[in-house]
Amino acid sequence: MNNNYVILGKFLFLFGVFLLSRVGYCDSVHGYDSLVKNWIDIENQVNTLNSEWHLKRKSMENYLSLLDEEAAALKRIVEQNSGLIGEVEAERLDLVQQKNEMEKSQSALEAKVRQSLLSIKDLAFQLPPPLNAEWNSRINELDVDLSSNSEKLDLIVDLLKKMNHFESRVVLHQASMKIETLDVQVKQVYMGVSQGWYSSDDGAFYGYGKPTSEGWKWWHMESASSELNQQLNPKDILAVINILENNSEAELVTLPVSVNDKLSLSQR
Fold first, then answer.
1. Which pLDDT tens digit goes with each residue over 208-231?
2. Ramachandran sector of residue 198 (left: φ over 0; alpha: ψ -120 to 50; beta: rest)
3. How far apart are CA 215 and CA 155, in angstroms?
4. Which tens digit of pLDDT belongs to each residue from 54-109?
5. DSSP state of 161
């Protein structure tokens, strides 16, 4: 555009010269002065246009420079955001993977807890009656369908602790037993969870018990001796009961036991 203004100026100058040559013959000073004034006005207009163009061009160049800088800044932001988006996506995928692994672990834990509870229930009916009653009371307190795995695990641990405590000592328990058609008050002696004996106060009723695949079972009087393959004497049972009740000095008392049967979670 600057070149156009220059060309226009030259054209106007030549045109002015042409006019002057054509009116050279005029002797009128007034006509000549008028032409010179018109030429000066035109020249001034050309200079003004040139000045304005230079100012506008500078302004446009500055504006274009600012646009280039802004475009470069936007490009850097896009590149940075692209990297950030990649990191966020990677973190999201990692969290999804962790969630899937936790769900798998949770499912595996739930399966193990469920199996442990089934084993606990299978074991419960094989335990000595006093411990069996205590276990069932605790199991019935827990709503298996609504309880969390943590609550179920706490229950299993508590039951096993009770079993371990029962197993580690000689337990004396008073109970009413159904013997044939009679309800008889007896005292029971348990040696851990795998052997038990009972006797009435007069020794008329006595017997031996142990866990079987059908649950805890009692043998009464002579049938107990047959199960043990040796004679079971109620006097020996009463002697042990007396020691436990009165904290008397220990004396050697022999009670027959069965050593071939063991309590097992796999029985039943």
1. 999 998 999 999 999 999 999 999
2. beta
3. 22
4. 676 777 777 777 777 777 777 777 666 666 666 767 777 777 777 777 777 778 87
5. H
Q: Token digits for 5? A: 């203004």
Kindly state the tokens that stand for 157: 């641990």
- 208 within 8 A of 218, measured Cβ to Cβ: yes
Residue 30 is encoded by which pair of tokens?
């007034």
Q: Determine the Cα–Cα distance for residues 117 and 264; give it in Å rounded to an integer.
A: 15
**Beta partners for 41?**
none
> DSSP character for 168?
T
* Matching residue, tokens 């280039």: 68
Question: Beta strand pairing status for 182-191 and 206-212?
Answer: unpaired
pLDDT tens, residue by residue, 131-185 = 999 999 888 887 666 678 888 888 889 999 999 999 999 999 999 999 989 999 9
CB 206 within 8 A of CB 221: yes
For tokens 């203004």, name the residue. 5
- Please answer whether residues 205 and 184 qualify as being in contact, where contact means their C-beta atoms are separated by less than 8 angstroms: yes
Give the start-to-end residue ranges of the domains of the chain.
1-21+29-123, 125-246
CB 137 within 8 A of CB 127: no
Pairing of strands 206-212, 195-199: antiparallel
- Helices of type H across the chain: 2-22, 29-124, 129-141, 149-167, 222-228, 234-246
